[in-house]
Amino acid sequence: MGANFSSCVCDGNDDGGSSMRPRLGDIPESCVAFVLMYLDPPDICKLARLNKAFHDASLADFIWESKLPLNYKFIMEKALEDDSFVAELGKKDVYARLCRPNLFDNGTKEIWLDKKTGGVCLAISSKGLKITGIDDRRYWNYISTEESRFHMVAYLQQIWWLEVEGDLEFQFPPGTYSVFFRLQLGKSSKRLGRRVCNTEHIHGWDIKPVKFQITTSNGQHVVSQCYLDNPGNWVLYHAGNFDSKSHDDLIKIKFSLTQIDCTHIKGGLCVDSVFICNSEGKMV
Predict the structure, then answer these.
(1) How far apart are CA 82 and CA 94, in angstroms?
(2) CA angle, 110 as apex, 106 and 116 as ends, to 5°?
(3) Average pLDDT over residues 13-22
(4) Can you tell me the distance from the alpha carbon of 9 to that of 1, in angstroms, rounded to the nearest whole number?
(5) What digits encode the pLDDT tens for the residues 259-272?
(6) I want to staple 57 with a disulfide (CB 3.0 to 4.6 A). Which of 33, 62, 167, 193 is the partner?
(7) Residue 165 in contact with residue 256, Cβ under 8 Å?
(8) Which residues form the F-box domain (predicted)?
(9) What is the DSSP letter of 173?
(10) For 39, phi and psi rounded to 5 degrees?
(11) In DSSP terms, which residues pair with 277 in a beta bridge?
């Protein structure tokens, strides 16, 4: 029966036959929206350009609410607290707004959603970390740079006792989260429009490894060690993972980078930031 019906609609030879051919625009908007709900956000946006029916269907709030984290209202309070128009946004606009980097906590932290998965990603700048000796210019100083999303890094000239700590209290949507320290051995700059990196002050990192630690308020604890290497390049050092079981739980996470063996000095290290990202997200 289906084949006969199809031939009646699509194969007419009279002048009105072509006007009876089914088109994408004839699919009910509600049906299109229901299908779009099962696609990733980038695919939804691509299909929205097909025609008006797909475009209108792609604006449905229930589609984008299904892509947002369960605690997206908490994230909005953190990231968009200064935007008075947020309450008027549709869910698609909320998703798009949260996928852009959003500064909070006096510009020392940044939050965004992965465009494809909706996973939560956070970054904490060097200004948002507690660094032992940071106020003593003999040891540390801040350097402006375009190579940091915060446009500034902390540079260690030399020290006996390396200790960099941070903490964050946040409602993490359910999932596994990875913690990374973004570090570089050497101090980079621009010379005649080209990137150069001064590595002459790098010392002490090949003697003993640095230690990373992560602790959470719900009892998780991770310790790892590694040697810092690859001078002149920014490296994401994986400190460890932690899990969140419920989007309603307010988890306080503490993380640290230490090398407190006072038998030797070390120096020539740039500390940019700490990333906390859902394991399915991208640190862009």
Answers:
(1) 14
(2) 160
(3) 56
(4) 12
(5) 998 788 999 999 99
(6) 33
(7) yes
(8) 21-67
(9) P
(10) -105, 160
(11) 121, 178
Rg, C-alpha atoms of the chain: 26
Query: Residue written as tokens 């994401």?
Result: 236
Please say whether the dihedral angle defined by the alpha carbons of residues 159, 205, 155 and 108, taken in this order, is positive or negative. negative
Tokens of 77: 């309070």
- Give all strands (DSSP E) within 105-220, no chain letters: 109-113, 120-125, 130-131, 140-144, 152-156, 162-171, 175-185, 187-191, 194-198, 210-216
DSSP reduced 3-state for 221: strand
Q: Residue 195: CA atoms inside 13 Å, Cβ hemisphere, count? A: 9
Count the helices and strands in the chain (H runs, E runs).
7, 15
Specify the amino acid at residue 100: R
DSSP assignments along 242-275, one per residue: EEE--TT-EEEEEEEEEE--TTS-BB-EEEEEEE
Which tokens belong to 148? Answer: 């940091």
Amino acid 212: pLDDT: 98
Place of tokens 């909320």: 94
Confidence of residue 193 (pLDDT cuts 50, 70, 90): confident
For residues 78 and 104, the answer to whether their CB atoms sit within 8 Å is yes
Class for domain 120-278, per CATH?
Answer: mainly beta
Query: For residue 111, what are its two tokens?
Result: 């939050």
